Each structure stands twice: as C-alpha cells, then as structure tokens.
Automatic annotation (TrEMBL):
It comes from Fictibacillus fluitans. InterPro entries: Ald1_epimerase_CS, Aldose_1-epimerase, Aldose_1/G6P_1-epimerase, Gal_mutarotase_sf_dom, Galactose_mutarotase-like, GH-type_carb-bd. This is Aldose 1-epimerase. Its EC number is 5.1.3.3. Keywords: Carbohydrate metabolism, Isomerase. The keyword 4Fe-4S does not apply. The keyword Isomerase applies. Belongs to the aldose epimerase family.
Length: 348
C-alpha cells in the first residue's frame, strides 16, 4: 500500500499534485488537490487487465476548462437550487445563477474549482489522501465559514471509500458528493448504454423542465426508472417517457434509496466482467447518464459524446431547502456534517 506523488501543474499560484493510491493487487486511484478531483481509477477486468474506469484528463489545463465536474467534489450544495436563492431563519441569500435561472453544484467557483490542502495516509490496511478546504463566510453567497474534509482511502479488497466531514460557524446549507463518471468497459472502449444498473429504490423524484425536483416522488413501477431487478442503462436513454426525454435522453434524477450500506447500487459491464457496488449512508443517489456530454473535446484520446459515462452521485436530496417534505440539508452552527460512501470494484 503506497501513495505516489507527482507534480500536475500550477494554478492560483499553487502547486497541484497528483496523488496515486496503489494497493497490493495493483489497483490504482489517482486524485489531485484541485477540486479534490479523481482523475483515474485503474481496476481489473475478468482477465485481470487493469484499465481506467472513469472519465478524466491528463493535464491540469483540461480540468481548468472542464464544465462537466469530472471526478470533482460538488459543493457547498450538490445539484440545483431553484432560482439561485434560499431563505434561512428569515434571511434571503442570493447565489450565482450558473445554470440558466438556477444555481448548480456550488456556483461559479464551487468546491470543484478550488485548491485543497492534502495529507497523505499510508497504513497497513489502507492508503489514501485527506483533502481539506476552508470556505469563507459568504463564499458564493452562502453563510458561514465552513471547514471541510474529504478523505479517499483504498484498501486491498479494491474498495475505495470517500468520507466527508465539515463544520460551520453559522447555520448554512451543505450537501456534498463526488461527481465521477464511471465507464466499466475500460479505457472508454464503449459507452455505458449496455451497462446494467440495479438500484434498491422504489421512488424517484419528478423533475420540471429546468431539472429541478417538483416535490413529487413517483413510484418506479411500470416506468423506465424501475431498476430494482437491474436494467440496461439504454432502458432510460432510449425511452419514450417524458421524464427521460426532458433530461436529454436518459437519467438525471434523484432516486430515493430503500436501504443503506446494503449493496444498494450495483453497476455491471458484462463484456469486461467488471462490477461496481456502491454503498452509502445518504438518502438518495442522483443517477446522471451523461446526457449532456457533447462532442467537443475528448477524454484523454477518446472523443467526448453522450452517454460515455454515468455518475452515481450519493447525496442529500437536491433543492431540499425549497421542499419541507425532503430531508433537510441545513447544517447548524457547530454541528458536524458527516457522510460516507464506498465503491467496491469486482468481477464476475
């Protein structure tokens, strides 16, 4: 178990370092201290061949230009906030409208676009890196000085764990996630439409035309959102169903999880044999099937296109501040925010 450090460039007058976590089986997870971005995950297929299973870039310049939140930490609040504003204890807070009329993934300079401090972890049972960042009171319009830590750990069972913790000196909103795009084919040989996705979820949240939750939870039964027994992702990308069509042909929806820490999210690619099992303590997962990936640019040497990757964003419910029936994402002064998700890579 070791962590290899390499220079990845310079931005904001700060050095950007790539940290590569390596376990005894040869699996690797690489992340940089810009945006706490996961840049590469090398995982074995059924023949033992290690290949990259996430979308990424080779240069810092490409990440500085990226608009897809590739592999990054989204925050302070993941997802959209309707109208770019919210009220807390009678006070109105105005945020950047960086997604039409709405606020998305923390604003113009969210946690995906800042330089984090980093601390290497090398222990017998795992290796990793702990990223930390202090978000100033008023940053991107949010109240409170927030101290955030995100820890990536890799063990010898090919399990990557992401632990989030934070404290604020004022009541604020906080809802963090990692925005990696997975593609288990290896080195992006195919898109993700023939991947099988299984979710332990009986309900998804209906979206309006701006991709904001309407507040209505819909039963998945008899819809392309019924993934309880596992379905090909193309079930959603090709569906003649209004919710899939308004999302750009596919999924960009929160699914309410029936259970936690119980193999609640499983992604498989039959051709490579790779599997990804996601377990979390969060209320929901936003499944985004890469509907808005366009044909501009590329990911390393593979041209960008729709459905080249799928995000499994474990988090609190999006736009919860505007829906009292949703679990709250309000963090009180001096309360501790904690969240935990594991990603176990296997084969079958």
């Amino acid at each position: 178990m070791e962590v290899i450090q390499e220079n990845f460039g310079t931005t904001q007058d700060q050095d950007i370092v790539a940290y590569t976590l390596v376990n005894s089986k040869g699996m690797e997870v690489s992340a940089i201290n810009y945006g706490a971005i996961i840049t590469c995950i090398m995982a074995p297929d059924k023949e033992g061949i290690l290949e990259d299973v996430v979308l990424g870039h080779d240069t810092l310049e490409d990440y500085l230009k990226d608009t897809n939140y590739l592999g990054a930490i989204a925050g302070r609040v993941a997802g959209r906030i309707q109208g770019g504003s919210f009220e807390l204890d009678g006070q109105e807070y105005t945020l950047a409208k960086n997604d039409g009329n709405n606020h998305l993934h923390g604003g113009n300079k969210g946690f995906n676009a800042v330089v984090w401090d980093a601390e290497v972890i090398e222990e017998e049972e795992h290796c990793g890196v702990k990223f930390s960042y202090v978000s100033a009171d008023g940053e991107e319009g949010y109240p409170g000085k927030v101290e955030v830590m995100v820890t990536y750990l890799l063990n010898d069972e090919n399990r990557l764990s992401i632990s989030y913790s934070a404290k604020s000196d004022k009541k604020t909103l906080l809802n963090l996630t990692n925005h990696s795009y997975f593609n288990l084919s290896g080195n992006l040989k195919r898109d993700i439409q023939d991947h099988t996705l299984q979710l332990k979820s009986d309900q998804f949240l209906e979206l309006n035309q701006e991709l904001i939750p309407t507040g209505r939870a819909v039963n998945v039964q008899d819809t392309p959102f019924d993934l309880r027994e596992g379905q090909k992702v193309k079930t959603g990308t090709t569906a003649d169903y209004e919710q899939n069509k308004l999302a750009g042909g596919g999924y960009d929806h929160p699914f309410l999880l029936n259970t936690n820490q119980n193999k609640e999210i499983v992604l498989k690619d039959e051709t490579s044999g790779r599997t990804l099992t996601v377990e979390t303590d969060q209320k929901c997962v936003v499944v985004y099937s890469g509907n808005m990936l366009d044909s501009n640019g590329d990911f390393r040497d593979v041209p960008s296109r729709k459905h080249l990757g799928i995000c499994l964003e474990t988090q609190g419910v999006p736009d919860a501040i505007h829906h009292s029936q949703f679990p709250s994402v309000v963090l009180g002064a001096d309360e501790e925010y904690r969240a935990h998700t594991t990603y176990t890579f296997g084969v079958e």
